[in-house]
Amino acid sequence: MKRMVAAGAVWLACLLAFAASVAAAASADTERVIEKGQVTYQYVDYWGEEQATTHSSALVVKNGTATVPIFMLQSGNAKDIPLEATYDRATGRITVFDIARSAYYDLKVGSSKVTVLNKEKIKQSELTLASDITVHLVGDYPCFPLEWFQKIGYSATFDGERGVTIDFRPKADAAEAEETKLYPFSIGSRYGYMDDTGKVVIEPEYEGAEPFSEGLAAVQSDGLWGYIDASGSFAIKPQFDTAARFSNGAAAVGRRTDGELKFGYIDKQGKMAKGFEYDWALPFRDGYAAAVWGNHFVFIDKNGTNLIYKFHEDAGPFSENLAKVAREDRYGYINKRGEEVVPLQFEDAGDFSEGLAAAKTNGKWGYIDKTGSYVIPARFDHAGPFAEGLAVVKEGDRYGYTDKTGKMAIAAAFTSAGDFKDGYAPAESGDKWGYIDTDGKWAIRPAYDFADGKTGPFFAVREGSRSFYVDKQGNVVRPRDSQGRDYSLVFVAGKAIEVNGKLLDLEVPPVVRNGTTLVPARAILESLGLELGWDPAAGTVTATRAGLSIKLTIDDTNALVNGSSVTLEAAPAIENGSTLVPVRFLSETVGAKVDYAPYRPFDPVLFGMEELWAGFDEWVDAFNRSGADEREQMALELQDELNEVEAGYKAHFAEYPNDAGAYMEYAFLLGELAQLFGADEIWNEAKAIAAQAAEIVPENRLYFNLYAADRSSDEQSVSAAYSAAAKADPYLVLNHALVNGTFFDAGKALSGLNGMDDMAIFCLNKALASEDEEERKRAKALLGEKYGL
C-alpha cells in the first residue's frame, strides 16, 4: 500500500518536539502527559497476513482517555495502516483518507464535528464526538481522541498506563455484518422478496432473483440482471447476462459479446474493477478472486490487478488465507504470494473451512491441516467442507457426518446430504429430501424433490419446478400482504391469465372495452378460493369465502361487497356464456395484486384486409376460365387495387411515421402476397417493413419472426424462431400460440427454458387436442420424455 513516508531524522525531530510541547502544555492544563507512551497498530498486510507493530510516542491523556498525535498517521510508522492524514495549520483543517473504506473525513481543530465524504468527496453523513479535536498549542500538533477511531469503525483502546492499541484489521461492513433479512420467493415465473414473518416487502415483478448479500440482491428484469437494495430500488441497473452475489464488496458479472460469455467484477456502485475478459470468475474471498483467463487460472485483487499468473489448471477461492490449485492433476495450496505452502500432491482437494480441508489420496478422502498433514485419515468415498463442526462424508453409497476427530457423529444413512447451517442440514432418504438436526434426526420429514438449504427462519424446498419455503413444523410458508392475508397475484398477459403462478385454461380470454380490462369471473375467483353462485333469472353472480361476500349483476355498474355498495368502472358482461368482470375490481375487493403485460398478438387474418381477400378463390377460378384478354384485364384490376392499398399505407406513414402497428399490418400484407405468388422480392420488402416497425417497438421483430416461422416448412428455422422469442419473452410466445394455435412449437420452445415447465406443459397439453395427428404424437412424446407425463 502506498503511504506517505517521512525520513527518520524528520520523524525523530517531530517526536522530540511533540514530547516537549505536550509536557509544557500539561504544566499549564489538567492534561496528563505520558512521555514514553506506545501506540500499537494491528493490521493485515498486502498478502493478507495479520501483523502488529508498536511505536514510541508521547501521549496526552485527557479526561481519562489517551489522544493520538496526528503525525502517528503521517509518518513512516503508518505505512501499513489504512489512514493518511494531512493538516492545514493556517485553517486548522484536518483531512483523513480512509483507504480501506474509500472515504474522506473532514475535521477541524477545536470542533467535535466530523464530516464523512465518499471518494468523490461528496458529503455522505456527519458524526459528532464527545470531545473536540485538541491542539497542543506549543508545537501546534492536533491530537485525535480514541473515540474518533471508534466512530469510523476501528477498535481503539487505552490500557490506562502508557499503551494505546488501534485495530485496523478489516471487519465486515454494516451490510456484511447484518444480513438483510429479506428472502426471495416465487409465484409462477415471477420473483419478489418477503421478510422473516412472510410479509411481502418487494413485489414479485422480476424474472429471477438471488438472495441478498452485503445489502444487495441480483434480480433479472427484461432478460438482464442488475442489483436492488432492501427498498427494492435498483442500486445497479439491469445490464448483465449473468450476475453473482456480492462478497468482499465485489460481484462477478457476465456479458455476452458476439455470442461469447465473458466475466468481470463490479463494486457496489456498479463500477468495473475488471473488464469482461475472463472465461469464468469465482467470488472474492479474503480479498482475492480466482478467474479463468485463457487456459489457466489467475488470482486478482479488488483493483483488478492480476497477481498470480502461474499456469494452474484448476483453482478455488482463497479461504482462511489459502487457495487450492492444481497442475497435472495434482492439488495443493498456495498463499497470497503464490507460494506453494502445501505441495501439489493430492488427487483432488476442497477449500479450507474451520481449519481443515478435504483432500483425496489413493481414491479416498480425508482431512488435512494447513501443513498438508492428514488429521483425519483418507478413508471416505467423498468429503465436503466442515460447517458448524461437522462435515458431510460418503461411505459406500451412503452419506453421514464426521466431527473434527474423525468420529462419525451422524451415521452414514442418507442417499445424499448437504452442509449444516443454523443447526440443520438438507438430506435425502430414498428419492425424497428433508432436513435433519445435529443428532441426525429428521426435523422436517423427507417429502420433497429437493431441499436447497436453510434460509433465515425458512427451509427451502422444491417440488417439480415449484420452489417454496416450509417452517420448522413443515408447514408451507405462504407470503402475506400488508393486511396479513394470503398474498395473491393475478397476472393478465394479453390473452393469458396466471393466478398465483398457475395458468388458467380459459374458454373466453380477457377483453378490453373502453380502456377497461374484463376477465372471466369464475376461473379467477375460484382460483382465489371463493365459491361462486349464479342466478340466471336475476342475472347475478355471488362469490363468497370467510369474511368476504360479493354480489355482481350483469350490465350493472353497482356491486355489493359485504353488503356495501361499490361502483365498478365497467359493468359485468356475458361473453360466449362466460361472465366477465373488471380486473381492477378483483384487486380492490379480493385483495389480489393485479399486474398487466400488454401484448398485441397479431391476427393472421389481416387487419382490415378482409375485403381485399373476400371471394379471392372465386376470382382465381374466374381467372383460370377466362381468355387471355380477360386475364390481362383482371390482373390489371387486381394490381390497381393493390396499388391503392400501397399508396394508402405510404400516405399514412408520411403522416404518422411512428405508427408501428400500421407498419406491421403492411408487412403482413406483403408477406401474404409473397406467399401467394411465391415472390422473394415481395418477401424481402415485407421483412424490411417489419424491421422499420421493430425500430419503433423492438418486440415487433419477434412477432414477425414467429409469423414467418408459422409459414415455413423448415423445422429447424421454426424451432430457432420460437426459441429466440421464448427466451426474450415467454408470455409473447404463449399469446402467439393462444391466437394461432401453434401450441406444440410454443411448448417445445418453453420446455427449453429454466422455470417455464408449467407454461410448457400447458401448451403441450393444448397441443394434445390438435386436429393434426402428427402434432399430437410429438406433444405426447415430449411430455413423456421431458416431464414423465
UniProtKB/TrEMBL annotation:
Q: Which organism is it from?
A: Paenibacillus flagellatus
Entry-linked InterPro entries: Cu_amine_oxidase-like_N, Mao_N_sf, WG_beta_rep
Q: PANTHER family in the record, alphabetically?
A: DUF3298 DOMAIN-CONTAINING PROTEIN, GLR2918 PROTEIN
Q: What is this protein called?
A: Copper amine oxidase-like N-terminal domain-containing protein
Q: May I ask which residue range the UniProt record assigns to the signal sequence?
A: 1-19
Q: Which UniProt keywords apply?
A: Signal
Q: Where is the Copper amine oxidase-like N-terminal domain?
A: 499-597
